[in-house]
Amino acid sequence: MACRGVNAPVHPVTKLSVAPLDNAASWDAYVAAHPDATPFHTRAWCEAITKATGHTCHVLAAHDAAGIIVGVLPLHHIRSPLFGQALVATGFAVDGGLLADNEDAAAVLADAAAALAASLGVSSVELRGGPLPEGSGWRVEDGVYAGFARDLAADDDAELLAIPRKQRAEVRKALESGLTVTTGRDAAERRDHYRIYATSVRNLGTPVFPKALFDVVLDAFGDDADILTVRDGGRPVASVLSLYWRGTVMPYWGGGTAEARGLRANERMYYALMYHARAKGCTRFDFGRSKVGTGPFAYKKNWGFEPRPLVYARWLAPGETPRDTNPNSAKYRLQVDLWKKLPLWAANRIGPLIARGLG
């Protein structure tokens, strides 16, 4: 079964040291045993990102005096001619960051990350989750993103009642519309998902990730990742690639065609995913993060999810400024408007070359 829970051991920390972690079994074991681990700390995720994008992954481990691992921090070295360089924990993830047994272990890992960045000539370290470092050069960044998650209801009827009245009416209409749903991981599902996702992000004015990224994540996670697609008369109109992690379903990369909104295909998709996740043994639905004040932020609130502010941390070398990868930034307004007008074939050819540098 894809969804399960774990308990983590507690190790007393006396004298700490940090070194690169090159033992795959030790990495796997530590993440599997830690209650705060996310799929983005796993070797499966980190190696998939490296395979799909070429970005090197540096894995730091904190050890106590007995040599026992008491903290892990995977960092992808993102390089981009447009957006600059950064060490990111972890690449293409919305969570991750420091994973440690206690504050001391987290602190030495943060110091080691900054030192690694300096040694590589990289001006920034970005942590997208976990404990927030307080050392020199570190700054807290909040007010940009919020996360949305809640428990799943016991069954379909209860799930429907858990949705606020106005949105519930939209879901009911979607259920009566004749739209069909398929799930799977085969070549046809992957092809349909990428076509829809690429269309969706082009329409939003942002470059699409390489198709290889979706393929390697599906391959790496096995039964813990799949695709759910909504079809209108057999034609795919909305699709989402989800991860399953410790009892939680995480719809991660999703989108719809221009017709999806009028068909209420997204309503059908997310309600179907709740049913599908319960059948896999999940008890929680993580709707992911959205930028505060955006349409996706409001949409998730309409489903009855309460926003939880996300606070990230960034280390900057002296005199450096943060790299800007926010498509809502005034800096990219013209580029976003132009990107929306690109033919899909052109956006799909150029987009992955740009998007791989976002990290």
Give a concise summary.
The protein is an alpha+beta fold. The protein is 37% helix and 28% strand. Helix 2 runs antiparallel to helix 7 (211-221) and helix 5 packs across helix 9.
Can you tell me about this structure?
This protein is an alpha+beta fold and 359 residues long. The protein has two domains: 17-142 and 311-321, Aminopeptidase (3-Layer(aba) Sandwich), CATH 3.40.630.30; 147-309 and 343-355, Gcn5-related N-acetyltransferase (GNAT) (Aminopeptidase). 37% of the residues lie in helices and 28% in strands. The chain is built from twelve helices and 13 strands. The chain has helices at residues 24-33, 43-53, 103-120, 156-162, 165-175, 187-204, 211-221, 260-263, 265-279, 295-302, 333-339, 344-355, and strands spanning 17-20, 57-63, 69-80, 84-89, 99-100, 124-127, 138-151, 180-184, 225-232, 235-245, 248-256, 284-291, 307-316. Strands 1, 2, 3, 4, 5, 6, 7, 8, 9, 10, 11, 12 and 13 form a 13-stranded mixed sheet that branches. A hairpin with a 3-residue loop joins strand 3 and strand 4 (84-89). Helix 2 (43-53) packs antiparallel against helix 7 and helix 5 (165-175) packs across helix 9. It is globular.
